[in-house]
Amino acid sequence: MTKDWLDARLRSGDDGELDAEPLGVVDDPYASVDDLAKHAGIRSIEMLAWRDLDHPEAGGSEVHASRVAERWAAAGVDVTITASRSPGEPRSATVEGYKVERPAGRYAIFPVAAARAVARRRRARPDATVEIWNGMPFFSPLWAGERRMVFLHHVHDRMWDLVMPAPLAALGRTIESRLAPGCYRRTPVVTLSESSRDQIVSNLGLDAAQVTVVRPGVDERFRPARRRDRDPLIVAVGRLVPYKRFDRLIEVLVKLRERHPSLQAVIAGEGSERQALEALASAHGATGWLSIPGRIGDAELVELYQRAWVVASASAYEGWGLTLTEAAACGTPAVASPISGHVDAVLDGRSGFLAEPGDPMVDALDWIISNDLLRRRLHAGALDYASKLTWDRTALESMRVLAR
Fold first, then answer.
1. For the residues 272-294, what does the mean pLDDT come to?
2. Which of 103, 192, 220, 224 is the most interior residue, by most CB within 10 Å?
């Protein structure tokens, strides 16, 4: 990576302000979730999810569902999230105004959710069904009512090979790309980014007109603090699973440390790859400066973003990159892999940089760490972009799609 590369990236943002890009549907005359729901006769909604927010493997998809459910419930809609059982959690609970039902296990939840819906008496059925299609679909158009919608954050595609044995991965891809799409051709789909929308249309063959982009929000607790760490601190957050490619990020950080001997790094999250990542860090002699603390609490996460100089992600698949915009709301720029989702969550040259894991990512991180003026510019761009992303707007625009 050369100075010419950096100059070209920065020139792309020289207009001074971030573009006021459209964030979703804006043509509905009703100005609140309450108005929309009443006009459409939506008094109750069932959301179908593989996991809920209290599940130990919960990630961005579960945060998104929870934040939308909270706001719909606050508007007077009876919202229930039906999800798989969480270890140590009750079969049913009320969370932030919405209900959570956990009637079956990790894989049984798919047929059980359908069977429960079919067995309901007509008067007990919800007014609307929202399916969260997270790899394996619920096939809700086959058994749900006419009022329905799907949240589809991204296509899993080759991600199946990273999370399943070969035969099951092949089955998952077949269901996702060949069997399921035909069932959803008359169902509105909401996704998080333009790049994910393009991927859904091209990979699944859905009609572009049925897929609406509604960007996620950022919780208000994410805000800038007065001081960063004295030494450069790189932070990465997410589930420690293969497709997040934290192993490649560790390789990047090891090379970056050669240029910046005072560098510190934290990879926060829990998952199946944690022991392997700890072993990799140990093999590189990085345990003194690279911390892998597991899943951390909300307050600690905010503080980590506020202390960081840069947030990084080498992930291979994302619908958006929620951790990147959470960090942006704290004024922390990002360096992330140029994948669908990331290309919308990071404004290249304005709120951070997009770079392939390897030497390009090392160089991008190096430029930010080494240049105070560049960090200040990216800090301002990150704050400006994140200020446009609110969960209230996400909930409203999602309801607009469902109400139509």
1. 96
2. 192
